Amino acid sequence: MQRGAKIGTSVALTILGILLVAGLWAGVTLRASLPQLDGQVRLTGLSAPVRVERDALGIPTIRGASRADVATATGFLHAQDRYFQMDLARRRAAGELAELVGAAAVDTDRAIRIHRLSSVAADVLMHLSPADHAVLTAYVAGVNAGLSALGSRPPEYLLLGQPPRPWTEQDSILVILSMFVAQQDSAGVYESMLAVMQDVLPEAMVAFLSPRGTEWDSPVVGGAFLMPPSPGPEVYNPRERRKGLPPGTAAVLPRLPARTPSNWAEAAGLRVALDDPWDVATGSNNFAVSGAHTSHGGALLANDMHFPIRVPNTWYRAAFEWPEGSAGLNSASLSSAGGTHRLDGVTLPGVPTMVAGSNSHIAWGFTSTYGDFSDIVLVERDAADPSRYKTPGGLRAFERHDEVIRTAGGTDEHLTVEWTIWGPLLAPDHKGRTRAIRWVAHDAATVAAALLPMETARTLGEGLASAGAAGAPAFNQIIASRDGRIAWTVYGSMPRRNGLDGRRPSSWADGSRGWHGHLTADEHPRVVDPVDGRLWTANARVVDGAMLELIGDGSYEIGSRARIIRDRLRAKERFEPADLLAIQLDDSALFLERWRALLVRTLALPAALGSAQRATLRGIVERDWQSRALPGSAGYRFTRAFRDTVSRRAFAFLLADCREADARCDYTLERKREGPLWALVTERPLHFLDPAYPSWDAFLIAAVDAMIKDTEQTFGADLSKRTWSEVNRTRYRHPLSAAVPLLGRWLDMPEAAVPGDLYTPRMAYGADSASERFVVSPGREAEGIMHMPTGQSGHPFSPHYGDSHPAWVKGDPTPFLPGPAVHSLILNP
Question: Between the ranges 304-308, 700-704, 745-749, where is the mean pLDDT highest?
Answer without folding.
Answer: 700-704
